[in-house]
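agent> Task received from the user: take the single chain below, predict its 3D structure, and emit structure tokens. No templates, no multimer pairing.
agent> Plan: (1) validate residues, (2) run structure prediction, (3) serialize to tokens, (4) report one or two observations.
agent> Step 1 OK, no nonstandard residues flagged.
tool_call: predict_structure(input=
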Amino acid sequence: QNHDQYHDQYHYYQPTSPNPKQYYLDLMTNFSKEEIGEIKKKYKGQFLEYGDSRMSDIVEGYALQAIFYYETGDAFCDNDQCRLFNSHWQKDLFISQVDNKKMCKKHEEILIKIKN
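)
tool_result: status=success, residues=116
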């Protein structure tokens, strides 16, 4: 196994991918405002920040998950391109809730039935 990557249950991370553990470790071990500012610049756009403009899109997706759970008993989708995908990492959250912002065909059809 390549030691420059690590694996969790869902993903392989290459050295060029944002590493969530390293990001938070960097933030926790560098307490000066200057160092934190540099770390935030280094990882800019890769993780949610306070006041992040993407938050509205993400909350909208979570609201859809709540509605689907209420209506169908199932909130999540296995398709990472669907807004109902249960993201475990922020990079996946950005794909399903910010970049794509659509539901898969199956859940789009269910939504039409719910509306009617």
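agent> Step 4: summary for the user.
The first strand starts at residue 6 and ends at 7.
agent> Done.
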